[in-house]
């Protein structure tokens, strides 16, 4: 299958070729023809699948074919985070470089002034986070009544971040006749409800999550005492000669502290999280991409939507409370067919979280003890026995961050279920047994 067979215009094909893409990804080959034929789409696809191009390319084509003449925006893409808005905005500019369409990114953390000026001059495509968009609406800077094309990107994350009311407020401002696309990494009852109210006869597309599709990502668990995590991390980076590693912590404070400690170990590092200014985040990301920084320490929300090509190493310094976040985290590595490793440093108190992740993945993650760091007395067998014992109850709802969408400083750990002793993992495989123990 080629891009030209999907019905895209010569201008778009030229931009695609310049990116070096030779063939569409599965989500692109399904979504592009559907969107061009004006259908609504409900797509389960996460970052790394090529989902941004899957909606951006046909959106650009649809807009360039219409002869509407007014200054109000005709397409709106809502994203949960500033980073994702910036990344989608960049894709719109890249793919639309040969088309006479104007795009604007609107997100918080930067001044309203330049955005207001740009809005007044007139734009075709708005890529926005909900809060800042509504700020502009309330100041009368933007008219959403001419929107023909609406995209809700990473809808599950939007709901997790408490944006549902903002989304509903935005929807009320849009005209009834429009095309709608909803992208979400996961489906839940809330997403279904949102989709029912938003989409008309949508084409439903499911693409395999990267963690099951991408055999290129090697996932490893290292058991370690909590207070030995930092020295183990430095050991892995220095001994493995890792030059680019994205590290996840659960809290903003933890991210700061870890970045400082890594620096003390001679590893160039910076932290990015919701308390950092947009300028500091952009700078850290640019330095990390260029190789000036070896380690980037991030919280889940700050890392959402980061697009770093061929990231070789991702480390879970702490496991996330929500198993789906593990999938998002490891989706940062092994992209576009490149090899990658996702390493999790697991202290004894995190074994219940590990069990929840393995249940979601439907498989076990290999355990490797590292001489001198593995917690005393923890063999693979005792680790797996603990995983079984601490296996949490099936989760009904995500742990929700604060309703204002900002990260929590201190999230509560997921608690073990008291009756979980007899519960089996979803893959039904035995946890014990004499698996060879790898030492790296
Ligand atoms: P996304 O899922 O939108 O975050 O995209 C993930 C990455 O895949 C981005 O770095 C894109 O530049 C890249 N990409 C998107 N479409 C293709 C394609 N058809 N072939 C190769 N790479 C692609």
TrEMBL record:
<dbReference type="InterPro" id="IPR014014">
    <property type="entry name" value="RNA_helicase_DEAD_Q_motif"/>
</dbReference>
<feature type="region of interest" description="Disordered">
    <location>
        <begin position="381"/>
        <end position="440"/>
    </location>
</feature>
<keyword id="KW-0963">Cytoplasm</keyword>
<dbReference type="GO" id="GO:0042255">
    <property type="term" value="P:ribosome assembly"/>
</dbReference>
<dbReference type="InterPro" id="IPR044742">
    <property type="entry name" value="DEAD/DEAH_RhlB"/>
</dbReference>
<dbReference type="Pfam" id="PF00270">
    <property type="entry name" value="DEAD"/>
</dbReference>
<dbReference type="InterPro" id="IPR001650">
    <property type="entry name" value="Helicase_C-like"/>
</dbReference>
<keyword id="KW-0347">Helicase</keyword>
<comment type="similarity">
    <text>Belongs to the DEAD box helicase family.</text>
</comment>
<dbReference type="InterPro" id="IPR011545">
    <property type="entry name" value="DEAD/DEAH_box_helicase_dom"/>
</dbReference>
<dbReference type="InterPro" id="IPR000629">
    <property type="entry name" value="RNA-helicase_DEAD-box_CS"/>
</dbReference>
<keyword id="KW-0547">Nucleotide-binding</keyword>
<dbReference type="GO" id="GO:0005524">
    <property type="term" value="F:ATP binding"/>
</dbReference>
<keyword id="KW-0067">ATP-binding</keyword>
<dbReference type="InterPro" id="IPR014001">
    <property type="entry name" value="Helicase_ATP-bd"/>
</dbReference>
<dbReference type="InterPro" id="IPR027417">
    <property type="entry name" value="P-loop_NTPase"/>
</dbReference>
<dbReference type="GO" id="GO:0016787">
    <property type="term" value="F:hydrolase activity"/>
</dbReference>
<keyword id="KW-0378">Hydrolase</keyword>
<dbReference type="Pfam" id="PF00271">
    <property type="entry name" value="Helicase_C"/>
</dbReference>
<dbReference type="GO" id="GO:0009266">
    <property type="term" value="P:response to temperature stimulus"/>
</dbReference>
<dbReference type="GO" id="GO:0005829">
    <property type="term" value="C:cytosol"/>
</dbReference>
<feature type="domain" description="Helicase ATP-binding">
    <location>
        <begin position="32"/>
        <end position="205"/>
    </location>
</feature>
<feature type="domain" description="DEAD-box RNA helicase Q">
    <location>
        <begin position="1"/>
        <end position="29"/>
    </location>
</feature>
<feature type="domain" description="Helicase C-terminal">
    <location>
        <begin position="232"/>
        <end position="378"/>
    </location>
</feature>
<feature type="short sequence motif" description="Q motif">
    <location>
        <begin position="1"/>
        <end position="29"/>
    </location>
</feature>
<dbReference type="GO" id="GO:0003724">
    <property type="term" value="F:RNA helicase activity"/>
</dbReference>
<protein>
    <recommendedName>
        <fullName>DEAD-box ATP-dependent RNA helicase RhpA</fullName>
        <ecNumber>3.6.4.13</ecNumber>
    </recommendedName>
</protein>
<dbReference type="GO" id="GO:0003676">
    <property type="term" value="F:nucleic acid binding"/>
</dbReference>
<dbReference type="InterPro" id="IPR050079">
    <property type="entry name" value="DEAD_box_RNA_helicase"/>
</dbReference>
